[in-house]
Amino acid sequence: MKFVYLEPDSIKSTIKLLENYGERGKILAGGTDLLVHLKRRTIRPDFVIHIGLIKDLEGITIGNGGVQIGSLMTMRMIEKSEQLRGAYDVLRQGAAQVSSQQIRNVATLGGNLCNGISSADSVPPLIALDAVAMVEGPKGQRIIPVEEFHIGSGKTMLGPDELLVGFKIPSQPPHTRGTYTKYTFRGTFELAIVGIAVLLTLSPHDLTCKKARIAIGACGPVPIRARKAELSLIGNKIDEHFIDEATRIAAEEINPNPGISLRASASYRREMVRVLGRYVLKDAFIRASKS
Amino acid sequence: MKHSLEINVNGKDYEIFVEDWKTLLEAIRENLGLTGTKRGCDDGNCGACTVILDGKAIKSCLLLARQAKGRKIETIEGLGSPEELHPLQQAFVDNFAIQCGFCTPGMIMTAKALLDDNPEATEEDIRKGMHGNICRCTGYTKIVEAIESARERIYKMRNKEGSGVVFQKKRNS
Q1: What are the boundaries of each domain within chain B?
Q2: CB–CB of B21 and A189 under 8 A?
Q3: CB of B56 less than 8 A from some CB of A
Q4: CA distance A144 to B141
Q5: What is the pTM of this model?
Q6: Three-state DSSP state, A217
Q7: Yes or no: domain B3-78 corresponds to CATH 3.10.20.30
Q8: Are residues A155 and A181 located together in one domain of the fold?
Q9: Looking at CA atoms only, how far is residue A52 from chain B in angstroms?
Q10: Is the Cα dihedral A266, A268, A269, A270 positive or negative?
Q11: Could you say which of A1, A103, A106 has the minimum Cβ distance to residue B21?
Q12: Does B70 contact A at CB distance below 8 Å?
């Protein structure tokens, strides 16, 4: 791999570089995904633009009707954050399950989304939280819902001259809690075979479900919301029957590759959505009912 | 073309000359001659390249050397001395946690970061924290026992008494 290393010190100077070199350049945040691509020669940029020193891309701020998280926050910072409690805890669970200690110390929330891989562990929680990505480019700023960010395997809506600067998560209704769990053979170290985030809002009086989000990763080219499964839960007191129904419906909503897949067949993924989905849904319900 | 880079390794400042695309692993081994850190898979899976950067365990094969500018790096060479091994090093020897030895530097650096962050790490914490390091020889049991034993010794050294974490042997006992 051969390239020129650039190290802008501000968002503005980064955008300028992207304007000039965007097509031939790649953003380097933590590098735990980028360096693998560079070594395998799957991408061959002429310029690598290291944004790791830009302070404006850091930080977690609560206020303004929600939470703002800088795109450079590492998985470890998110995992250990005292501020991401309550409903936001589902994002902490996602970050805590990324790979291993060493990777979490370096890998960033922004990078996890921009890499465009459907099994990214921080993405289903962000989708469940209705998070949006804040993007800046030469033409100004724009907001992209995280749910729409991935457009295909390895492909995102981010233009070559754009920088992901952070995320906004709207404040959640009271009595909202969630769970994210990934299913693998060998622990968190592996990419998810199935990753499910469930976020539930329950009525404090009778524990009926007022709002539900079910986001599933690694079961198709992009992570998805299982909207029909979510609807099946609304207005109901979630018990074994509704859990079975919702996971059955969710298993049909996913879109895994019907042909050969390296790590799991389509039918296995559907079955695991049901099995893991039951566990995650139950766990999310327990958390929400305790809140 | 090589450019200059200032890094701090094991408490000493160095100025090295590297191309923009060199990884921290390559800089440590080739520029500084510190070959204790190993190149195993070179793509972030095996953990043999683990060093400690500003107190956190990281995989040096996945960091460009330039990303380490101005930061503090600790390698296996910085632990202990031939006369007095670091408690982790001594524990690995005493508990037969070393066979071919290739994974060992990475294991020890990850374990050190783990115990520095959580001096009362339980067996489960240790197993979870060591996820990023692979060993083909030992089957991990002795490695985990060595780390638990080092935890006790380090805790005693700091607090004059044991950590109180129950030293549990699970399977087959």
Answers
A1: 3-78, 87-159
A2: no
A3: yes
A4: 47
A5: 0.95
A6: strand
A7: yes
A8: no
A9: 8
A10: positive
A11: A1
A12: no
The CATH class, in words, for B87-159 is mainly alpha
Residue carrying structure tokens 């766990």: A283
B59 at the A interface (CB within 8 A)? yes
Q: Which residue bears the tokens 């029957």?
A: A241
pLDDT in tens for each of the 291 residues of chain A? Answer: 899 999 999 999 999 999 999 899 999 999 999 999 999 999 999 999 999 999 999 999 998 799 999 999 999 999 999 999 999 999 999 999 999 999 999 999 999 999 999 999 999 999 999 999 999 999 999 999 999 999 999 999 999 999 999 999 999 999 999 999 999 988 878 899 999 999 999 999 999 999 999 999 999 999 999 999 999 999 999 999 999 999 999 999 999 987 767 789 999 999 999 999 999 999 999 999 998
Same domain, A280 and A236: yes
Q: Looking at residue A260, which CATH number applies to its domain? A: 3.30.390.50
The answer to whether the beta carbons of residues A133 and A107 sit under 8 Å apart is no
A100 CA: distance to closest CA in chain B (Å): 5
Q: What residue numbers bound the domain in which A24 lies? A: 4-50
Q: A157: helix, coil or strand?
A: coil
Residues 71-130 of B with CB under 8 A from A: 110, 113-114, 128-130
Query: Within this chain, do residues A46 and A59 fall inside the same structural domain, yes or no?
Result: no
Same domain, A42 and A70: no
Q: What is the CATH number of the domain that holds A9?
A: 3.30.43.10
Q: Which two tokens stand for residue A233?
A: 């839960």
**Bridge pairing between strands A47-50 and A4-6:** parallel
ipTM entry: 0.93
What's the alpha-carbon Rg for chain A, to the nearest Å?
Answer: 19
A-B CB pairs within 8 A amount to 80
**Residue A162 shares a structural domain with residue A192:** no
Whether residues A5 and B47 touch (CB distance < 8 A) is answered with no
Which of A5, A31, A187 is opposite residue B131, by nearest beta carbon? A187
The total number of structural domains in chain A stands at: 3
Asked if A24 and A45 count as a contact pair (C-beta separation under 8 A), the reply is yes
